[in-house]
Amino acid sequence: MVTPNDFKPGLTIELDGRVLQVVEADHHKQGRGDAVVRTKLRDIETGDVFNKTFRSSESIETAHVERREFQFLYGTGDSYVFMDMEDYEQRELTRETLGRNVKWLKEGETVRFALYKGKVVDLEVPRTVDRRIVQTDPGLRGDTAQGGSKPATIEGGAIVQVPLFVQTGDVIRVDTESGEYVGRVDG
Hints:
Elements: E1 12-15, E2 18-28, E3 36-43, E4 49-55, E5 61-62, E6 66-76, E7 79-84, E8 90-94, H1 95-98, E9 110-116, E10 119-124, E11 128-136, E12 149-154, E13 159-163, E14 171-175, E15 180-185
Antiparallel strand pairs: 1-2, 1-5, 2-3, 3-4, 6-7, 6-9, 7-8, 9-10, 11-12, 11-14, 12-13, 14-15
């Protein structure tokens, strides 16, 4: 059991039968009465993010979520195969189980899974990933960084808006939270 005063990003709690992860927690002391904690919570099974305010005196049950490293081996259709880096067992998971982060997967890379009671409830990818552009329209002569943007398909199949000067074959850095282009990577 914890109180909202103990909330920090990454903490997992059980509330109303759901497993939630604290994204943000802001403590506020009002003139009279209890302090409150305004939080942004993410349901780790559905990915939904919502705000909730707690009184600082409430007791909240913590959820014991295990995080383990897995290597992404390959994907076929709607199935994805991963190898547990601890015991080398392979797990096959569906696109539905993996959720919104499936588009950031790249063969051979290591990702983290959040497991709750042995069941995979979330695929955690790094905040930024470096991906090669598989296809994009060619830029025009004189294109600059401020000259607009165009869609580009990157490894894994995600489509990202990139500056006009970026070409097929370039390696770019992408923010996995927003899906936005961060910059070009040498190499």
